[in-house]
Amino acid sequence: MSNSSTISADLTDIDEARSLGGEVFYPHDVSVTHRGDPFCVHLNVRTFGPLKVGMLSYESTVRIDTGPLGDGYQLNAPSKGAIRTTYGQDRVTATPAMAAVHSPHRPTRLEGWGGGEDVLAVKMDRFAVEDTLERLLGHPLRAPLEMAPGLALDHGPGQELWQLVRILIDQVPDVRAGGLPGTGGSVFDASPVAASLAQSVITGLLYAHEHNYAEELRSPAPAGGPAAIRAAVAYIEEHAAEPIGVTDVADHAGLCVRALQQGFARHLQKSPSGFLRQVRLGRVRDALLASDAETTTVATVAAGWGFFSLGRFAAQYREAYGETPSQTLRRTL
Question: How far apart are CA 206 and CA 203, in angstroms?
Answer without folding.
Answer: 5
